[in-house]
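Dear all,

This email documents one entry for the complex benchmark we are building for the journal club exercise. For each entry we list the sequence lines for every component of the assembly. Then comes the predicted three-dimensional structure of the complex as a token string, followed by one or two observations. Please use this as the template for your own entries, and keep the labels exactly as they appear.
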Amino acid sequence: MDFPEPIRLLAFLLGMMAFVAVNAAYLVWAERKGAGRFQRRPGPTEVGWAGLLQPVADGIKLISKQVIVPPGADPILFRVAPLLVMAPAMMTLAVIPFSETLVGRDINVGLVFVFAFGAINVMAIMMGGWASRNKYAIISAARVVSQDVAYEIPMLLVVITLLMVTGTMNLNEIVQQQAGWFWHWNLFRLDVNPLMPVTFIIFFICMLAETNRAPFDMAEAESELVAGAFTEYAGMGFGVFFMAEYANIVVGCSLATVLFLGGWQSPFGVGSGVIWFLLKMYALVFTVIWVRWTFPRTQFYSLLNLSWKILIPISMVTLVLTCILLKLT
Amino acid sequence: MHDQLFWFFSIAMLLSGLLVILSRNPVNSAMFLVVAMCFMAGLFVLLEAHFLAIIQILVYAGAVMVLFLFVIMFLDLKAERRRRFRILTFGGGIIVAAAFMVKVHDVVEDMPLVAAKGVAGTTEAVGRLLFTRYLLPFEVASLLLLVAVVGVVLLSKRDLK
């Protein structure tokens, strides 16, 4: 099917927005259902079969509520912040290759593109927290910045390590290099670089921290900060922040799938397609939910220590060792 | 299309640049600076320098401005008060700006028109230039950054002892 480029892009954009919205809604359902099962209770059951209509009911409730701007708040920044959290997640999905042909824009610097817009997300949460003029929100904003700056460093370091192996920043080419049986995936390519699993684990931990997920959800630590940066947001203002969290998880897991798990490549070398991409991505998303309900929230200082004292040194060593290995072979 | 986009990006960038210095609230200034950076990235894209455009957003709009905002929020700066118009500061500003414009004009005149060729912006090209032709300035810049880091650590540790 060959459509003119503007129409194809428009269709892709609409599709992406629908994809993000459906995912955000139903990942909330999956999270609540999963949380229920992990804690030996049924989770949502009332609305629809197995509570499947619960996200719809929640959405209607949130939309029908008034968005209240607190009197002391900065009116423009307060309103812009939820949009700025959501928009980068949608933009980054435009360069993620879902299958060989199903990609919004196949650009040469796809990988850096994702990180560039991921960084805007941090700014947006900080803006939301600051504009609220609420002490909990401001503490949360401070935490978001120090946490995300700390975890961006090891994340970029392991991505550089991976880049040295792949030799390209084009996400499509990175997936194509991983064609064939599953031991050709970057995660298992021990012949090229035996440190690949280490980089994957660091990447995954940093992704949890960057998307503000438990055990690293310092921004929204409800037991200490009410709801963190989102305290003053009512109705859909909060709803958009909430959806953006899941959108960012989808982006992070998609990126991990593309970089380490072979993207749309099937594990058996034949029958590659978008279905494999979605399978791997949702497996990772499930792991993210699983981690949240298994580990308790860490302390803020141990969180920063983990990054600066453990993850950054390890990723530095991985980087140097990879340099040496690639030079030797 | 190309020309219209160029005008759109440059006018929008200049406007948000003006708003940076005209708004009284420091946080708003910083936000407009982010907007200006993003439009500048748009200009880089028009020059086919995609890598530079993305790095512009990643480093300036993402990292540097986040730290700027962080510091501004922590210092809790109040909105600037309206100050009396002083002829001396105004005149001084005009002179400095005029001198700067003359200098920029000189530099642009001397510059050969090669930027629009379209190959200079790829990652490989930028990397190759950094590690061959501009290796010394590159290393000097990183040394400067290192000195800054060491200096900051020294200054902040002195109070702890």
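Observations: The mean pLDDT of chain A is 82. The radius of gyration of chain A is 20 Å.
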